[in-house]
């Protein structure tokens, strides 16, 4: 199958830029790029917290610099809703966190190596396409505000005296602290599914959340 779905639960790891970048990275390093491929196109929605951020940019630059096949020189991110919906509608391969892929701490390393988005030479939020170009041992980035017109110029966004190869993110531990009121979750599920909602196998996810919050509350009481 050409489509993958990366799955993890809320108690395993937050849905943030580290998780999304790690999932995309896992696909990039394991995909079999042919020797004739020189350009790779990635498209996604414009969510700033997950896709359209410096963490994702840093991961792509790191992959392009240190891990991509030598024949790949260019990377283009396309944010197009129609294409995105078409891909999601196809059958997909499911990879569970910890079993088929890991989360890496791209964000911390990104802050150390890349300039802040406010210091970039183009406006990230207004850009619809991002073009990464590999130039020997470094990568330049160009932001375009139009889908079909190329108006910008490619420059580096790496801090002075830093190199993108210095990222080398570490693997993150699986586990996330959940916030919430256990009683409110239990009451809500009882209201919709009855007092024996825990016997419903379709609600296994909520049983995990309920148990995790209970453990968190007990830990807080103990400390």
TrEMBL record:
Protein name: Uncharacterized protein
């Amino acid at each position: 199958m050409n489509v993958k779905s990366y799955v993890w639960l809320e108690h395993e790891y937050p849905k943030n830029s580290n998780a999304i970048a790690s999932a995309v990275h896992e696909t990039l390093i394991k995909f079999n790029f042919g020797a004739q491929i020189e350009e790779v196109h990635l498209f996604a929605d414009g969510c700033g917290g997950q896709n359209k951020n410096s963490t994702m940019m840093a991961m792509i630059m790191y992959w392009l610099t240190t891990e991509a096949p030598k024949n790949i020189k260019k990377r283009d991110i396309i944010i197009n809703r129609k294409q995105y919906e078409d891909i999601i509608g196809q059958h997909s391969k499911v990879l569970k966190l910890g079993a088929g892929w890991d989360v890496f701490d791209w964000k911390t390393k990104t802050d150390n190596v890349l300039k802040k988005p406010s210091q970039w030479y183009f406006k990230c939020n207004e850009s619809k396409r991002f073009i990464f170009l590999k130039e020997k041992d470094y990568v330049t980035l160009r932001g375009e505000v139009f889908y079909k017109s190329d108006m910008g110029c490619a420059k580096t966004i790496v801090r002075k005296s830093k190199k993108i190869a210095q990222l080398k993110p570490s693997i993150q531990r699986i586990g996330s602290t959940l916030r919430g009121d256990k009683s409110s979750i239990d009451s809500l599920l009882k209201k919709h599914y009855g007092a024996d909602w825990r016997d419903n196998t379709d609600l296994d996810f909520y049983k995990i959340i309920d148990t995790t919050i209970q453990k968190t509350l007990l830990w807080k009481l103990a400390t």
